[in-house]
């Protein structure tokens, strides 16, 4: 904390220095000025929290200084130390924010009390300022989210407009006089790869930057507003309600602004003009269709609409036509066969004059369905959880394979498709290897002969392996020892048999490989947490 002493007499400033224990009050810096004008320079440079000033000084007196402080340093707290017992000076002190008026000669106790009072007043105000700053920061963070949600909802539910009409007019200048509006969508999916990579760890920052750049242009002329679509991930929507015929040209201007700031351009889809707010969703859907049906194999324009989209007559190409060929390549386990099959698909795509995002999405969904079906065919009795685990290497949504300039890259797509199919082929080969593995043969033997009196020595003799090798490898593969694995099989069978009330416990024990009923009950309770009789009662009650 800093204190500024203002007095034209040096001995008075020296006396004040000696009368106060500054460290006790948390004062680290003591500044001095010999008149009001010098004091203003010190205030602007150092921003002291506490100012102690005389009233009668040359050049700029205390009266003028108080007036200046209220205008230019209102947060500072001022203590007046004067040799004049003048009511008008006291009144002036109170009027311009002074916290105390002390008469000379200075009383030490009175001076320290005044300083404590001024410090407490400053700290109380600072706490309020801090709270206000925090609140403003929070409001500035929440406000964009509020507009995002409100305007997103307006697209889906036009009836929500009436409740927000006054606020939209006041803050966005979207008044009731607006009868028609156009919707544009800013697309990130065909943005240059280098920019995407730069923001890969903070996509929110990229969206924030694009929205801010767009709104710099839109709000300046009160012609529209850009926001993040609440109901669609990573989509920026622009509402355009002024100069709608020139909207395409204006989007080009925004794109140039984006190029200047981020060194890239983006694709815009734009719908036609529709009644506001009733038909806002129609313009939004047109903008989406324009983006999804644009040709990804060429970059003729950055602004796309359903009115100017290019349609080409070509045979319908579906990924499912290649299912059998890909499936055979997977079973072969040959990289050459897989590469050859993928190349056939890519060659077919190359013959298409137009490839749209809609087509890519359809092909990706076909491949996802086929891959799930292949896994279920290749791996018998596989659980749904295991299927999901094997599909973890695949993205949950379409990732458009683009080159550095945002144009569809068939070579990148070919590489990714080859990698994905080869990965599945590798899993199939590993599974086939495991099926032949002796440890899995032992597990299968236990599944079939659980009701017999089986010992580790019996298994070792049957499979011509040492007991130690079987124990070690079995534990590595299944993460349980062989006896526990056999016990779990027997208990699962026993629980099924216990549902039959006509079977005695001793019969159930014998049927699952236990000749001793008491030992069976002991093992059952250890594994299941209850006796066979308790389990039977619980199961029958259910």
UniProtKB/TrEMBL annotation:
Response regulatory domain location: 2-119
GO molecular function, one term: DNA-binding transcription factor activity
Domain of life of the native organism: Bacteria
Chief location: cytoplasm
UniProt-listed GO biological process terms: phosphorelay signal transduction system
Alphabetic keyword roster: Cytoplasm, DNA-binding, Phosphoprotein, Transcription, Transcription regulation, Two-component regulatory system
Subcellular location: Cytoplasm
Modified residues (4-aspartylphosphate): 54
HTH araC/xylS-type domain span: 440-538
GO cellular component: cytoplasm
Keyword Transcription regulation: yes
One Pfam family per UniProt: Response_reg
The protein's name in its UniProt record: DNA-binding response regulator
Organism: Paenibacillus ferrarius
């Amino acid at each position: 904390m800093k204190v500024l002493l203002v007095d034209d007499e040096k001995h008075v400033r020296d006396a004040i220095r000696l009368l106060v224990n500054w460290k006790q009050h948390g004062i680290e810096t003591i500044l001095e000025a010999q008149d009001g004008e010098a004091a203003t320079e010190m205030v602007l440079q150092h921003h002291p929290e506490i100012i102690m000033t005389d009233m009668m000084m040359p050049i700029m007196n205390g009266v003028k200084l108080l007036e200046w402080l209220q205008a230019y340093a209102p947060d500072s707290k001022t203590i007046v130390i004067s040799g004049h017992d003048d009511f008008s000076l006291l009144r002036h002190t109170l009027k311009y924010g002074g916290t105390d008026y002390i008469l000379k000669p200075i009383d030490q106790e009175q001076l320290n009390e005044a300083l404590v009072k001024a410090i407490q007043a400053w700290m109380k105000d600072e706490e309020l300022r801090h709270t206000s700053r925090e609140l403003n920061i929070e409001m500035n963070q929440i406000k964009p989210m509020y507009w995002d949600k409100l305007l997103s909802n307006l697209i889906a539910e036009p009836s929500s407009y009436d409740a927000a009409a006054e606020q939209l007019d006041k803050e966005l200048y979207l008044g009731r006089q607006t009868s028609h509006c156009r919707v544009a969508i800013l697309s990130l999916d065909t943005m240059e790869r280098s920019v995407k990579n730069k923001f890969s760890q903070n996509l929110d920052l990229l969206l924030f930057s694009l929205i801010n750049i767009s709104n710099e242009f839109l709000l300046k002329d009160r012609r529209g507003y850009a926001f993040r679509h609440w109901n669609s991930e990573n989509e920026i929507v622009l509402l355009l309600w002024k100069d709608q015929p020139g909207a395409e040209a204006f989007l080009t201007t925004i794109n140039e602004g984006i190029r200047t700031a981020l060194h890239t351009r983006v694709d815009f889809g734009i719908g036609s003009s529709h009644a506001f707010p009733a038909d806002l969703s129609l313009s939004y859907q047109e903008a989406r269709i324009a983006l999804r049906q644009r040709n990804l194999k060429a970059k003729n324009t950055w602004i796309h609409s359903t009115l100017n989209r290019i349609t080409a007559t070509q045979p319908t190409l579906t990924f499912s036509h290649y299912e059998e060929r890909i499936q055979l390549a997977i079973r072969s386990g040959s990289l050459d066969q897989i590469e050859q099959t993928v190349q056939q698909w890519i060659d077919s795509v190359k013959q298409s004059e137009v490839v749209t995002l809609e087509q890519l999405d359809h092909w990706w969904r076909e491949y996802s369905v086929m891959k799930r079906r292949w896994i279920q065919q290749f791996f018998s009795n596989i659980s749904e959880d295991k299927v999901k685990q094997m599909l973890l290497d695949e993205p949950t949504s379409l990732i458009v394979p683009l080159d550095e300039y945002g144009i569809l890259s068939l070579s990148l797509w070919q590489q990714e498709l080859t990698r994905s199919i080869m990965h599945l082929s590798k899993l199939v080969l590993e599974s086939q290897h495991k099926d032949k593995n002796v440890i899995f043969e032992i597990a299968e033997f236990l599944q079939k002969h659980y009701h017999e009196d089986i010992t580790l020595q019996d298994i070792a003799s049957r499979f011509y392996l040492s007991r130690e090798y079987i124990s070690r490898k079995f534990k590595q593969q299944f993460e349980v020892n062989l006896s526990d694995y056999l016990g779990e099989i027997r208990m699962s069978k026993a629980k099924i048999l216990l549902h039959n009330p006509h079977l005695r416990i001793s019969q159930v024990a014998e049927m699952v490989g236990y000749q001793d009923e008491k030992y069976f009950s002991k093992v059952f309770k250890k594994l299941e947490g209850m006796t066979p009789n308790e389990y039977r009662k619980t199961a029958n009650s259910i």
